[in-house]
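Hello again, I could really use a second opinion on something today. For a while now I've been wondering how a particular protein folds. Please have a think about how the structure follows from the sequence. Here's the protein in full, and shout if anything looks odd to you:

***
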Amino acid sequence: MVRFPMWRVALRMLLGDRAKYLALVIGLSFAVLLIAQQGSIFLGLLLRSTGPLQNVSQPDLWITDPYVKFISETRYLSEVDLQRVRSVPGVAWAEPFFSARGIVELPGGGFKSVNVVGIDRTTMIGRPPEVLVGNLEDLRIPDAVFVEEGSIRRLGYTGPDGQMLYPKVGDVLKLNDRRAVIVGVVRAKAGFDSPAVMYTSYDNAISYVPLGRNRISFILVGVKPEVGRAEVQASINRLPELAAFTRLEMQLRSIDFILKETGIGINFGITVTLGVIIGLAISAAIFYQFTLENLRNFAVLKAMGARWNQLVGMIFLQAIWVGLIGFGIGVGVAGAFSLLGRRPAAELSVFFPWQLLVGALGAMILCVLVASFVSLQRVLRLEPAVVFK
């Protein structure tokens, strides 16, 4: 009967062959990196698709056409619809919100597509989350616009001497052939398909992007404190050709649209699945080869009286050891990638919640468990007499 610590023997066997040990760690690290990095980009894209909803926190309800599926694809409402919503019992206030595409002509001769956001100039309902430069009250000035922080780089142009120039406060741009004066800089979330974002008053917005009789993208509604939100929502839903949604409901509708109407979900799902398959294949193959080369050592331990549960514990310890190290390296590299997506105007959109870490850990555990079971089959059938051959 063996008396010495079996865990120490297991680690010495594992670390003794540095080449295979490093191959196991690198294989699992690459699998975790694929799962965590691609998963964070996938979640970031889904979150980015609800960017306009994240920017507006004041309303209790968003009023739009019942058939709207995506925040950036709307059927515009009329002033009559706005008055109908204001007449609903329990509505404290209802304000128009404008969002549409426009073309900015740059001083260098080029042009850029921008998302023009118009908010009520009196109440400022729908205002951006944070003002970095300027005063939001300046939106009441005719032709005044605020530029989103990350959009400044997108609106860059080449100067006369070949140097890159970027718009700044005080510059005058031409937005859909109309004068637009930059009076400040704000910070806000970009939408899924928003190349650049400009904030202005609702009155300015409908002159920059004329749409005809119907020109309200959403009606933002605040509910009286003494009235239940669900009651007001049900009353608005009874109005013809109008539907009321909470912010969470609109977010879920937008995410559902991205998953079902685009190929993003399938593409990223295939990549994450490949990460799991690669991790399983590499870890199982290398770990099995490692076990084969150490069969004589396991036979010696069996001959010395090692019980089957001790051998099982040794193999699981070796698998968990390389798995946790590979998990740490893979998640660390994926986390470094995610930091790139936090810069303003970064094209890489990432979201790295703790649930994704748990999912990557679960995938890693699956890989090492499969690799362990493959190796255990050979070790448990091993005859101690093999050591004498």
About this structure: The longest strand covers residues 91-105. The chain has a mean pLDDT of 83. The chain is about 50% helix and 20% strand. The two ends are 22 Å apart (CA to CA).
